[in-house]
Write a structure and sequence with these properties.
373 residues; mainly beta
Length: 373
């Protein structure tokens, strides 16, 4: 992300965010780091800032419902890119000292990015920029979805990832994900912290749950090289650089991913998130992994336990004072997870070489798969 720059000569902690990203009186509920959904099979490395307009039905929203998105600190905008639609854009700001803020699914670049946005389509949906921005300056507007937001700190590696090499083939910044709350202070920090759905520490959430020698955390199908989802042979036989993205013959790069990690809000519950449920080309699923009394939770399931069968269920959310689904736009704080309809069973076994074998059902057969870190 640094574009080949040398190591910073200042500490990341010297960067201070003195302006909110979105107006605090328009900030509603924030989904913390760590959600697993769709082809985001491993825990997501950004938060989703909720805004007031989401509580208004889409058909009734007007121009006045857009809110400004502003720089929390001064820096340089180094990237503006499209995520596939005019209202889904990505912006990266370099704040110096190895600190970057990233904004995704930004509805409308504006302000200091207004002119660059006009060139985005003509430039193939990607612009490498060097555009100065001051603290509090507007660079976008948001209305129709939460704003993806995170901070990367290039000076610190998340220690909960067992194998750094697995992220060299895709999402290379993921291990540098940082808690953004300490960069803010005063009323801004308080408002942003209070907006987070998660009530347990760390409030911002967590994405690195690997426990070496146990089942918890992220895994990649044996024979593939980490996050990129490509077979190892693809890299061994390559004559040019293998870039991340689509995997030949597969529905998604995440077809080979597996994560067995705590739910991002209700951390008492375990999510079984997999990129290949029944279709070898990839059909991502997230399910509740039930851990009844007498069975080890995934962070304690080791090779000494042998093969253990767990039940899988549809993930259902329960909100304070309600038994229904999530009210549109409200994203309440402190909801809990309960089991829905059964999705069958899965048998898990941590092997002596620290790999993980699994098969859907109650016993291993020739269909057993093995995953590695």
């Amino acid at each position: 992300m640094s574009g080949g720059k040398g190591e910073p000569t200042c500490a990341a902690s010297s960067v201070k965010f003195t302006h909110p990203v979105v107006p605090l009186d328009k900030l509603t509920r924030t989904i913390p780091y760590g959600m697993m959904i769709g082809d985001h099979v491993t825990p997501i490395d950004h938060a989703y800032l909720g805004i007031a307009s989401l509580e208004t039905p889409e058909a009734q929203r007007t121009e006045a419902d857009y809110v400004d998105v502003t720089a929390p600190a001064g820096g340089t905008i180094i990237e503006l890119s499209s995520l596939g639609a005019p209202s889904t854009n990505r912006v990266v700001i370099d704040h110096g000292c190895g600190v970057y803020t990233v904004y995704m699914v930004l509805n409308r670049p504006s302000g200091v990015l207004a002119n660059a946005y006009k060139d985005l389509t003509a430039k193939g949906g990607y612009l490498k920029l060097s555009l100065p921005i001051k603290v509090g300056e507007v660079f976008g507007q948001q209305r129709d979805n939460p704003l993806d937001f995170n901070v990367f700190d290039g000076s610190q590696w998340l220690r909960g990832f067992a194998s750094p090499a697995s992220y060299l083939t895709g999402d290379t910044s993921k291990p540098y994900t940082a808690d953004y709350l300490p960069f803010f202070s005063g009323a801004i920090r308080t408002a942003m912290e209070n907006s987070l759905q998660r009530t347990t520490a760390p409030r911002i959430g967590k994405i690195d749950h690997d426990v070496i020698g146990a089942a918890a955390g992220n895994w990649f199908l044996e024979g593939t090289f980490g996050y990129g989802g490509n077979p190892i042979a693809t890299y061994q036989n390559a004559t040019t650089r293998v870039s991340g993205g689509p995997v030949q013959g597969k529905n998604s790069y995440a077809w080979s991913h597996l994560s067995i990690s705590p739910h991002h809000v209700d951390t008492t519950q375990w999510v079984f998130s997999i990129g290949w449920f029944s279709d070898p080309k990839g059909d991502h699923q997230q399910m509740l992994l039930s851990v009844p009394a007498g069975k080890p939770d995934p962070s304690k399931l080791t090779s000494a336990d042998g093969a253990v069968v767990y039940e899988l269920y549809v993930i259902s959310a329960q909100f304070p004072g309600s038994t229904g689904g999530m009210p549109p736009g409200s994203m309440p704080v402190g909801y809990t997870i309960v089991s829905g309809q059964s999705r069958g069973s899965v048998v898990l076994q941590v092997n002596s070489d620290n790999s993980l074998s699994l098969e859907f059902g109650t016993a291993f057969t020739g269909a057993k798969r093995t995953y590695r870190r």
